[in-house]
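Usage

Read records sequentially. Each one opens with the input sequence:
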Amino acid sequence: MAYPHSNLNFEKMLMKFLSEEDPMLEMLKWLCEKLMDAEVASKINAKKSERTENRSDYRSGYRVRRFDTRMGTMYLFVPKLRKGGYIPFFINAKKHSEAALMSVIQKAYINGVSTRKIEKLASSLGIDSISRSQASQITKELNTQVKAFRERPLQKTFPVLWVDAFYEKIRFNGQVRNMAVLVVIGINEEGKRDILAVEPMQEESEATYKSLFENLKERGLKNTWLVVSDAHKGLMKAIQSSFIGCSWQRCKVNLMRNIMAHIPAKAKAIFGEKLKQIWLQPDIESAKEYANMLMDKHEDKYHGAIKVLEEGLEDSLQYYNFPRIDHRKISSTNMLERLNKETPRRTRVVAIFPDMDSYIRLMTINLMEYSEDWSAGHCYIKQEVISLTREDREKAA
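and closes with the structure output:
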């Protein structure tokens, strides 16, 4: 059945909207206002200016609220109630999409996307701009996550630690400096990898590494069986003083690079193949025997290379003392080096970080993703292998 009077009113409203600069946005605004009136009337059991016995509250003017939509931004007059706040249901429903949007913006922020690009992203999703308060809230939320991750308590025992450093350009006290970024990865007693620390430091020295390890111990780390790293002198001394009784595995790849630096270009391929065989022997005695044979044969011709090999050999063979663990996983820092290469690739879009806080925030959030993936993924070293190795150590003690 048709209602001529209703059709006439609708046509008048439609003509009114068509005269506006943005008819669709004005129609949506009108609809939102009608929805708010209906919702408030239902909430207080009374229409506007209506007197009823069941009224539970009274209207008390309006407040202006900005509302961002895919059609554009509008400013609504939201009814105020005397006894409490009122938020329109369609704004509450939109909070889920706003949360998703903020997640996207956070991700863009984390990945070093420029403010201009983020504003374009927001605009494409129906938001005019990102306010200073929104940007501040993003940073605040990220800082909370970063702080929780960096200060979280650690298990008492991490059987294996990998330690390495790389360098980033960070603005510090008004100057752009190359800062050493120290990263520690550990294997827990369940055999899963975890990122224990990421610490930008002024330099790579015994003092900075000692500070790094002391922080790990303050967070709960007490025991480690093996630390894998390169042969930085400060790092070596810090390991010795911080983890008494643990073994140190010099990264075999790092040692091979140092050796090959003394080999002429024409001989690198042939000598390199022979050199690799040291760390492929079935046991430590065979490895030492093969290494001695290689050193005796080439000492006169490649004196510099053989000297480096002789000095670093023993420390590069410590993984043989953990025969149950796959030697490919604990004989080098390759796993950590791959991570250290991936991280700068993701931070390169920033070029020079404006301050230390921004770098720590970006780095930690990126590494948190790896940590979460590792915790949910397969064991890097099987838990039963960790348990059997612990038994071997207890028997040997």
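Summary fields computed downstream for this record:
- The beta strands are 59-69, 72-81, 160-172, 175-187, 193-201, 226-229, 247-250.
- Confidence is low (pLDDT under 50) at residues 1-6, 95-101.
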